[in-house]
């Protein structure tokens, strides 16, 4: 089999889903992060469990996990993957909540988009649940921190 370049454009220049059928299924892992900046008093309400809409951190964690499992449904041209684990950690300090998602699979393509989708959905959930108290919140710094597995090797953000 002649190896085709991995591109979302076909020979006619039209978007298509990349054919990964010739790639080996290997263990793959991605870690993504995001931040939600807010007024310190908003963070106090979240951490004390006093936000009017309920447990913000638990809801954001579940939203991130659920979103990672639906990435192929919301990001065009992403492959549906069999995720083996998804964790979403939320760390509140000063005027922000840092969100870190770790996603793993044993499949033919990576899970970077699933990790990035997880932190994005968790961040938007925090915003949604707290916007009545603090409309000035800011979702910021969504980024890939680590990826391993597959042909392209390991990546670690600096």
From TrEMBL:
Transmembrane segments: none annotated. Its EC number is 4.6.1.17. Pathway: Cofactor biosynthesis; molybdopterin biosynthesis. Keywords: Lyase, Molybdenum cofactor biosynthesis. Homohexamer; trimer of dimers. The keyword Lipid biosynthesis does not apply. It comes from the Bacteria. It comes from Acetobacter ghanensis. The active site is at 128. It holds the Pfam family MoaC. Residues 17-150 form the Molybdopterin cofactor biosynthesis C (MoaC) domain. Catalyzes the conversion of (8S)-3',8-cyclo-7,8-dihydroguanosine 5'-triphosphate to cyclic pyranopterin monophosphate (cPMP). PANTHER family: MOLYBDOPTERIN COFACTOR SYNTHESIS PROTEIN A. This is Cyclic pyranopterin monophosphate synthase. Gene3D superfamilies: Molybdopterin cofactor biosynthesis C (MoaC) domain.
